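Data availability (excerpt). The following record was deposited with the supplementary files.
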Amino acid sequence: MNSHSKNILNIVKNLMIFKNIPVLEIENIALFATLNNVKKNKILFFKEQEIKFFYILIKGSTILFENDNKGNRYITQLLSDSDIIGDIFVKNFVFSAYCNEDCQILAIPISYIVDLAKNNLIFSNNLLKEIVAKNYKILNLLTLHKSVNAKYRILQFFQSLAIENNPDINVINLKFSKAVIASYLNIKPETFSRILQDLKNCGEISVNGNEITIYNKKNHMHNLK
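Predicted structure:
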């Protein structure tokens, strides 16, 4: 096994979706898989394109989207490290996807993943958990869009990305631009910027580059409901 294959093997071993899979199966996955460096703004696949590979985002961030008949783009998901990109158990992709930044993406032939899911109960359970989590994010987004309170949508989004240090302080690192996040939350960019400034002025958040600290999160979320 060459150094590239060993690198893929080490990556696969540490992915939650392959947790508790037998070593021999992990080695087979590594043999079938390829690790690709994909440049920022590169389209990974288009909606309705035939699915040939199972993609896992190892490093970076990607955006799932679709265009309406008028050419307007709607962002449906923001993905980051270790997220599954795209679909499984369907013939064609439901959404399109592109890289938000330079990415490292693991690609495994979809036929191999389907066979593994059919024959390995541990993997099928792991995969089911990933699919449920992914669908939960989509449903959560739909719920946010129904809220007329843009401030709530923004704080709820920040909360979903938060790294919890203690009950009162959360720190997140934004991988996506303000314009992308605003579009994802169905908020006008100027409204997003205004609310972000209001949150800073009120001491509810602080901003240091791409790092945002949310203060007294529980109190704020309760007051916004």
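Summary of structural features: DSSP finds eight helices and twelve strands in the chain.
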